[in-house]
């Protein structure tokens, strides 16, 4: 299980031992009640079973050490406080994974809801800050080098749309895992009426595995973990941009700091982007889990147990890590400090080189042959790069007068993206 440092309370509670046993009991009770409506279990026994307390994790573990079978240990612990004539009706016609997988589907669906809620919040924060900084000019960088002017709002808008796509993937994955099966040892309903499965899954808000073996198909779980890993990668993209823009020679953004912040035990001047770095590390864990869960899809025949040990680690950890990562990213973006002055200053650092594409385009529109236009602009750019003079001055000296060069000229059609962002915010609301 993931360490408590990265497990927020609501998600940790869903994956606790006590909640798992409580969910198993609920599946057993709902199945018994459905059996009672079919007339297969006496109503007094249904009432007794419905009132029985949830066993403690400690008692189940104690019995498991004796029996080496978790579900049999759970059933024994659950039935200990039931009269024998009622206990014998528990788990009627069912097999272990009727309980385990149906309960797991319920837990995954509820966990998915928490991650979706967090991702929706992050999308809204990104959209809000993107609109706040829509006209905050900054340099765009390709290959790590100065390219053309853009705005900080445009950067954040790209991240907002990435999170929006992740939300759509998560919704599909949530639907995929929100299924159960109560169909017996090889999925043929040999000892149980399909009505029981229908009623239990309906009460739990689950769909039904259409062609069960003994278990729910594991491609469903893989889809969820892959969606979480992709979401994690999108958060990593945000964190990577913050890390890069936080570097000493750039310092266009800075992570929020507590009042008594200390960035280094040895160097008091340090203001390290540790929050962003943490988000990047968590994304790596999520990607690692995606590989493990894909290995679980191909089980032997109607089932084997090779997936179980993997899922005990990968499923709760992926949910907890993704939930923590997205919530932490939301806080980081919401409080991110943006130095608009340094962003503006960076536009002038290259001696005017950022205008080369606009100059080239204007010369081509005037009818200048492409090779001649490109070489002329390149020669002026090379001179400006060596620090000889400003790019604009060198252009005029070579006879290429293209007027006053301003960064705003690159953003003539920029509002088309803003309208898309506003539509995204409207749909999200």
From TrEMBL:
An annotated GO cellular component: cytosol
Pathways involved: Purine metabolism; IMP biosynthesis via de novo pathway; 5-amino-1-(5-phospho-D-ribosyl)imidazole-4-carboxamide from 5-amino-1-(5-phospho-D-ribosyl)imidazole-4-carboxylate: step 2/2; Purine metabolism; AMP biosynthesis via de novo pathway; AMP from IMP: step 2/2
Plastid among keywords: no
Domain Adenylosuccinate lyase C-terminal, first and last residues per copy: 351-422
Its EC number(s): 4.3.2.2
Gene3D superfamilies listed in its UniProt record: Fumarase/aspartase (Central domain), Fumarase/aspartase (N-terminal domain)
Catalytic activity from the UniProt record: N(6)-(1,2-dicarboxyethyl)-AMP = fumarate + AMP; (2S)-2-[5-amino-1-(5-phospho-beta-D-ribosyl)imidazole-4-carboxamido]succinate = 5-amino-1-(5-phospho-beta-D-ribosyl)imidazole-4-carboxamide + fumarate
Keyword tags: Lyase, Purine biosynthesis
Region spans: Disordered: 254-274
Example GO BP: 'de novo' AMP biosynthetic process
Domain of life: Bacteria
Entry keyword Lyase: yes
One MF annotation (Gene Ontology) recorded for this entry: N6-(1,2-dicarboxyethyl)AMP AMP-lyase (fumarate-forming) activity
Entries under NCBIfam families matching the protein: purB
Stated family: Belongs to the lyase 1 family. Adenylosuccinate lyase subfamily.
Name the record gives this protein: Adenylosuccinate lyase
Organism of origin: Kineosporia babensis
């Amino acid at each position: 299980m993931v360490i408590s440092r990265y497990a927020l309370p609501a998600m940790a509670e869903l994956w606790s031992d006590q909640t798992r046993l409580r969910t198993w009991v609920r599946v057993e009770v709902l199945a018994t009640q459905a059996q009672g409506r079919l007339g297969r279990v006496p109503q007094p026994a249904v009432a007794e079973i419905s009132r029985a307390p949830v066993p403690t994790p400690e008692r189940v573990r104690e019995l498991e050490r004796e029996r080496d079978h978790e579900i049999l240990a759970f059933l024994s612990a659950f039935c200990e406080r039931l009269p024998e004539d009622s206990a014998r009706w528990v788990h009627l016609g069912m097999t272990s994974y009727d309980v385990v997988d149906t309960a797991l589907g319920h837990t995954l669906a509820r966990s998915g809801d928490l991650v979706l809620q967090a991702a929706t919040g992050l999308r809204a924060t990104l959209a809000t800050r993107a609109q706040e900084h829509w006209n905050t000019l900054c340099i765009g960088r390709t290959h790590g080098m100065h390219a053309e002017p853009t705005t900080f709002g445009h950067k954040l808008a790209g991240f907002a749309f990435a999170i929006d796509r992740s939300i759509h993937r998560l919704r599909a994955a949530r639907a995929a895992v929100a299924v159960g099966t109560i169909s017996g040892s090889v999925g043929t309903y040999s000892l149980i009426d399909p009505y029981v499965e229908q009623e239990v899954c309906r009460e739990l808000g689950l769909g039904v595995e259409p062609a069960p073996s003994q278990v729910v198909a594991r491609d469903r779980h893989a889809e969820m973990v892959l969606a979480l890993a992709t979401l994690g990668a999108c958060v990593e993209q945000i964190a990577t941009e913050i890390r890069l823009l936080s570097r000493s020679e750039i310092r266009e953004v800075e992570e929020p700091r507590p009042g008594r912040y200390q960035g280094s035990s040895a160097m008091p001047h340090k203001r390290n982007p540790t929050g962003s770095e943490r988000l990047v590390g968590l994304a790596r864990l999520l990607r690692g889990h995606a590989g493990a869960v894909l290995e679980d899809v191909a089980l032997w025949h109607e089932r084997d147990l090779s997936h179980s040990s993997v899922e005990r680690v990968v499923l709760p950890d992926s949910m907890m890590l993704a939930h923590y990562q997205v919530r932490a990213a939301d806080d980081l973006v919401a409080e991110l400090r943006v130095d608009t002055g340094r962003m503006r200053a960076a536009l002038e650092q290259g001696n005017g080189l950022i205008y080369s594409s606009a100059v080239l385009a204007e010369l081509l529109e005037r009818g200048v042959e492409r090779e001649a236009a490109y070489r002329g602009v390149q020669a002026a750019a090379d001179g400006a790069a060596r620090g000889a003079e400003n790019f604009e001055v060198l252009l005029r000296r070579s006879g290429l007068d293209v007027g006053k060069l301003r960064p705003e000229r690159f953003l003539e059609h920029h509002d088309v993206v803003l309208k898309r962002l506003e539509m995204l915010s409207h749909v999200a609301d």
